[in-house]
Amino acid sequence: MINESQASHVVGATAYGASGAKIGKVGQLFLDDATGRPEFVTVNTGLFGTKESFVPVSDAELDGADLRLPYEKDLITGAPQVDLEGGGHLPEGEEERLYAHYGLGSGYLAGDPAPPAGTGYVDPGLTGSGTGTTGTGTVGHDTSGPTTDDAMTRSEERLDIGKTSQEAGRARLRKYVTTETETHTVPVTKERAVVESEPVTGDNLDEALDGPAISEEEHEVVLNEERPVVGKTTEPVERVRLGKETSVEEETVSEEVRKEHIEVEGDVEDRRKRS
């Protein structure tokens, strides 16, 4: 029997059946409103722990992180589903259903000795010798709720990938002015004075004797030269504009998807086609 001091360690323990079969993790612990003693636990059963089965714990034993239950796994997983009242309480009628399921009978009190597992209990979902075949042709019954049909639907998520357009950046043209030095070579003409002499001949005798015989004179010439003159004019050289072009690139996207898997237990021939 689980005492009050052990109650805080029950939730999260691993539950095992009477034959040592692992059943699942303990999810909740329910105490008797009058005595405060542990009365029921829920165990996560079914595929991937998707169902909670209620189990009386009057004769359960807590062994470290393991909870030993005095019932077979099939009896626990076939327990009826229970609707809780507000505040998480078990209605009296639901308690009686659970006690009847485990062969404890109505009026059983938590702490009373429990009969051997399964005593006085007949699963209404089974007929004949317990093969699980009903007279309507449906093989087996649902342990997680009402029986619907003879098949289980497996679903999975698929990615729906689309595209959306969003602003990735902006480009603009900006014109600014810089100053550079340009050097050019320009040919210029310069005059210089040269002194030349020529002998007096009959051809230039008259020019030579023109003027006084002896005198002082000065003669000058004007020398000219070219200098570069720089001016500036503005002229257009090119036109620049912004445009857009489109390119196609490959991007890889990753996202998690959930997929259901169906596994079988027991002596079953698996004839499913593997993809």
Structure description:
By secondary structure, the protein is mostly beta strands. Helices cover 7% and strands 12% of the residues. It has three helices and six strands; from the N terminus they run E-E-E-E-E-E-H-H-H. A hairpin with a 5-residue loop joins strand 1 and strand 2 (22-31). The chain is rod-shaped and about 170 Å long. It starts with 13 loop residues before the first strand and ends in a 66-residue tail after the last helix.
Mean pLDDT: 81
Strand order in the sheet with the most strands: 4-3-2-1-6-5
- Percent of residues in helices: under 10%
N- to C-terminal distance: 49 Å
Overall, the morphology is rod-shaped
Helix count equals: 3
Question: Biggest sheet, open or closed, and with what strands and sense?
Answer: 6 strands, mixed
Number of strand elements: 6
Radius of gyration: 55 Å
Poorly predicted segments: 106-138
Quick rundown:
This protein has 275 residues and is mainly beta. It has three helices and six strands. It is rod-shaped, with a radius of gyration of 55 Å.
Q: Can you give keywords for this protein?
A:
3 helices; 7% helix; 6-stranded mixed beta sheet; 275 residues; mainly beta
Q: What order do the helices and strands come in, and which of them pair?
A:
Layout: E1 14-16, E2 22-31, E3 38-45, E4 51-56, E5 61-63, E6 66-68, H1 73-77, H2 92-101, H3 205-209
Parallel strand pairs: 1-6
Antiparallel strand pairs: 1-2, 2-3, 3-4, 5-6
